[in-house]
């Protein structure tokens, strides 16, 4: 694990992150972090625990919200909600 990843979209608190207001930005598009764990939500989505070292905390992200950090990042300005159903059981270091 501990794949280095980059956010494809801004992540805001949906009420599940303690100590932050609902709607407060937790991580910005383009931020880099490390996958430190994988869980599921409603048995339908994999949630990747991403540690953002500069922020100092771990945020849950969906797979479509992440790209490998070494992949070219293009900010398309599109932050639409990207839903994804479970497709595979684990994140391998070579893929995100």
UniProtKB/TrEMBL annotation:
Keyword Cell division: no
InterPro entries documented for this protein: Nitrogenase_MoFe_mat_NifZ (IPR007415)
Sequence ranges of Acidic residues compositional bias: 73-87
A Pfam family that the UniProt record links to this protein: NifZ
Keyword Kinase attributed: no
Region span, Disordered: 73-96
Superkingdom as given in the UniProt entry: Bacteria
Gene Ontology biological process: nitrogen fixation
Keywords, in A-Z order: Nitrogen fixation
Family, similarity comment: Belongs to the NifZ family.
Name of the protein this chain belongs to: Nitrogen fixation protein Z
UniProt organism field: Crocosphaera subtropica (strain ATCC 51142 / BH68) (Cyanothece sp. (strain ATCC 51142))
């Amino acid at each position: 694990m501990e794949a280095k990843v980059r956010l494809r979209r801004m992540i805001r608190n949906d009420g599940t992150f303690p100590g932050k207001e609902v709607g407060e930005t937790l991580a910005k598009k383009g931020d880099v972090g490390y996958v430190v764990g994988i869980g599921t939500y409603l048995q339908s989505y994999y949630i990747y625990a991403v540690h953002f070292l500069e922020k100092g905390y771990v945020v849950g992200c969906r797979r479509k919200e992440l790209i490998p950090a070494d992949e070219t990042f293009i900010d398309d300005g599109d932050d639409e909600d990207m839903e994804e159903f479970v497709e595979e059981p684990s994140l391998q270091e070579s893929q995100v």
